[in-house]
Description:
Number of domains: 1
Low-confidence stretches: 1-7
Order of helices and strands: EHEEEHEEHEHEHHEHH
Distance between the termini: 15 Å
Bound molecules: adenosine-5'-diphosphate, guanosine-5'-monophosphate
Number of strands: 9
CATH superfamily: P-loop containing nucleotide triphosphate hydrolases
Amino acid sequence: MNNDTHNNQSDIARRGIMLVLSSPSGAGKSTIARELLAKETALELSVSITTRKRRGSEIDGTHYHFISERDFKRMRDAGTLLEWAEVHGNFYGTPTDPVEEALNDGKDMLFDIDWQGALQLMEKARIDVVSIFILPPSMAELKARLERRAEDEPETIAKRLKNALNEIPHWREYDYVVINQDLEQALSEVTAILKAERLRKDRRPGLFDFVEGLVG
Ligand code: ADP
Ligand code: 5GP
C-alpha cells in the first residue's frame, strides 16, 4: 500500500462494532471478556445495571452498576435502556447513553449479555452487532467451573445449571460459536472474529476516500 494519507489500515474511518458475548453462566464469558478488554484498547465494556447482589470480587461501577429493583424499573420505564431482561430471577439492562457515546467516538463496544438481550440488540442494530455464543466443553465442566468460581450459593449454582439447558439451544441465533475448552484457544478465536469483522468493507466508509485517492 503506497498512499501518503492512508498508509495505515487503522487510519481508514470505520463504524464501531457492537460485540456481543453470551453463554450459559460459568462457560467463561466474563473471563474471555476481561482478557479481550486488556488486549484491545479500542474496545470498551458496556457496564450493565443489575438488581443482582454484588459478588465479593465485583466492583460497583466496573463490573456492574448494582441498583435496587425500584431504580431499575424507573430507568427501564423512562426508556433509558437499550435492552433489558430478567435472568436467573434478577433484572439486567444496558444503559443507552454510554453505548452511543463510545460508538460516536469510533470505539467498539463489548456486551456481556444473555440471549434475550442479544436478540434485542440484533433487532435494533443488526448491521452493527457481531454476536458470539460461548459454549462449555461439557456440562460436567460447566458445573465444575461454577463450583470452582465459588462465588454463588449452591442453590444459585443449581438454578444456573438448570437454566443453561434453556440457554444453550439459542446458539443458533448467533453469528459465531466458540467452545471454551482451552482459554487461550477460545480467546484467540474471539480475537480473530473481532479482527476480521473490523475489516468488513461495509464497516469501513473511509474506503471510499481511500480508493479515490488510490486511483484518481
Ligand atoms: P461466566 O462469565 O460465563 O459466568 P466466568 O468467566 O466467571 O463465567 O468463568 C467461570 C469460572 O471458570 C471462573 O472460575 C473462570 O476462571 C473459569 N474458566 C473460564 N474459562 C476457563 C477455561 N477455558 N478452562 C478452565 N476454567 C475456566
Ligand atoms: P451474572 O449474574 O453471572 O453476572 O450474569 C447472569 C447473566 O446475565 C449472564 O448471562 C450475563 O451475560 C447476563 N447479563 C449481564 N448483563 C446483562 C444486560 O445488561 N442485559 C442482559 N440481557 N443480560 C445481561
